[in-house]
Amino acid sequence: MSESTQQPSAQTQAFMRWFRALIVIGAVAWFAVVVYQNATQPEASNPFKLGLDLAGGSHLIYEADVSGIDPIEVPQLMNVLRDVIERRINVFGVSEPIVQVEKSSFVTDEPIERLVVELPGVTDVSAAVAEIGRTPLLEFKLYSAELDQQQQAVENLNSLTLASSSGATIGEVKVNGEVADKTGTVSPFLDTGLTGRYLETASLEFAGSQTGQLANEPMVAVRFTDEGAKLFAEITAAHVGEQLGIFLDGELLSAPVINEAITGGTATISGSFTPDEARALAQNLSFGALPVPITLQSTQTVGASLGVNVLEHGVKAGVFGFSIIVLFMMLWYRLPGLVSSTALLSYIVIMLGLFQLVPVTLTAAGLAGFVLSLGMAVDANVLVFERMKEEFRSGSSSRKAAEVGFIRAWSAIRDGNITSLLSAIILFWFGTSVVKGFALVFGMGVVVSMFSALTITRTLLMVLPEVSYTEKSFWSKLLGCGLSK
């Protein structure tokens, strides 16, 4: 037999086993140092990112009115709304805000579209709501003479009814299917579909005397996106000679007459503004006009002291759970239990590193998922050790028993972790923001636990002395005692 086909010597195999073990231990130790530095240094590049329930802040839930929007366009508009609110929040200096879209339920016929806003460090809810609420809803509507005439007729009917009945009120009045208010008035403007969702920029300008407006009158010039410019051109071309009302948060600012088709994708908003008012309006519109109306549904404030208390209790629970698991594994499996505890410690280091590098926003639910995953992280080790027992008792050496144990336990480890991972995916896909935090951490824990069990535990087991079931040496007692019970 040639040298190229010979098996490596026992010394070479032992060297390779120790080399791999030292590489694994060194990598985990280095990663642990990085995690510690990021957790303790005030100016760390990747610190832990804590959610509101751990760091304190405000939690706002808005409901979007999408009743008059094509369902196909709703997801896109909600994404635009999220981006707009996020830009608006960034302006007043909130550190790492979270703005996300969610539906009330996936099983209802008409799910409610919600926008969840989390503002870490902001405990003044009224100030946060006022700041977000200042973002305007910009709409362009066409004046309808027919609706105006119907409105006048309803108003005349109201006055006659009140005069003849000495204060009696009329019943529900509808104009073109739209319910009038108590005075019978209905806005004589029709929706065009052109709203702030198509807005690109807005800037302060001053009108010249040749424009037909007062000289140096402050106004706001808006520029539409390509899609908005096309829609604006179509509207102005089809309705030359009609009035186009410009509404801000439902209030009519101006209603200029369309003299010709406007193809440049720009328009001006004038409404007896002062320079400061026009500048503020331009700034607000530039930061984002809301594509759909929103209403505040609920608010929640978490104090910083309460968040610290929750975090401390979560850390204590994690330390206590880790200690119990290590104690059980070492009492039941002895030396293999110590190996699995070392792998569990590496699992914790890797998970904490992922929390910093991904980064994952840690909430109380996510912290609970992490503590829960500690127990599940050793289930693969338990399966392997039980298979090792069977092989060890049948006469195989400890190292051979470990090799066969990993092979025989793989199918059970694979199936169990896949089902857990599927559960985490389902929870993350359909759950609310709180459930998603738990599901994300739990899913990450499943993947990392498989890596720690199949790689780290296996590597460390292979460097242990090889003993047999019948030996009476020190290592056989220490290693075999956990496998022969």
The class by helix and strand makeup works out as alpha+beta
**What characteristic shape results from the CA principal axes?**
elongated
Q: Give the N-terminus to C-terminus distance in angstroms.
A: 43 Å
Under the CATH scheme, the architecture of the largest domain is Up-down Bundle
Major sheet attributes: 4 strands, antiparallel
CATH-assigned homologous superfamily of the largest domain: Multidrug efflux transporter AcrB transmembrane domain
| Poorly predicted spans | 164-185
Secondary-structure blueprint:
Blueprint lengths: L9 H31 L8 E2 L1 H4 L1 E8 L9 H18 L6 E6 L9 E8 L4 H9 L4 E6 L1 H21 L8 E2 L2 E2 L9 E7 L3 E8 L11 E7 L1 H13 L5 E5 L2 E4 L11 E4 L5 H14 L5 E9 L1 H30 L1 H23 L3 E2 L1 H13 L2 H15 L4 H33 L2 H29 L12 H11 L1
Parallel strand pairs: 1-15
Antiparallel strand pairs: 2-4, 2-14, 3-4, 5-8, 5-11, 6-7, 9-10, 10-13, 11-12
Helix pairs in contact: 1-9, 8-9, 8-10, 9-13, 10-13, 11-12, 11-14, 12-13
